[in-house]
């Protein structure tokens, strides 16, 4: 069965638009929960954060990047931020912890 190239491009554009909408909805939901304060649970926040990460990977894939390319770029950015003594690293060591977590995943 031959797939129409125009149909494939249209489907790709449609899914990219859906992923962008999903990303914005998840970010809005996270902001809304943070604004409301203590009325949310850890599980709800983890679900939203996981969705943002998942959608980011899927959007990157639809834009032509491999998941490993995104991971590589993230590792590079983490190293740069550590070397530049970003405040989140200086105050909490979060970037080093993230770097160690990603290294553990490999």
UniProtKB/TrEMBL annotation:
It comes from the Bacteria. One of its GO terms (molecular function) is nucleoside triphosphate diphosphatase activity. GO terms for biological process: nucleoside triphosphate catabolic process. Pfam families: MazG-like. This is MazG-like family protein. It comes from Tepidibacter thalassicus DSM 15285. The lineage of its organism: Bacteria, Bacillati, Bacillota, Clostridia, Peptostreptococcales.
């Amino acid at each position: 069965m031959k797939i129409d190239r125009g149909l494939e491009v249209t489907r790709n554009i449609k899914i990219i638009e859906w992923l962008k909408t999903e990303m914005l909805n998840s970010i809005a939901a996270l902001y809304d929960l943070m604004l409301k304060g203590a009325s949310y649970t850890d599980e709800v926040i983890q679900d939203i954060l996981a969705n943002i990460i998942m959608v980011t990977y899927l959007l990157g894939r639809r834009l032509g990047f491999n998941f490993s390319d995104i991971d590589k770029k993230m590792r590079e950015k983490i190293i740069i931020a550590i070397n530049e003594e970003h405040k989140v690293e200086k105050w909490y060591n979060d970037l080093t912890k993230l770097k160690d977590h990603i290294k553990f995943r490999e």
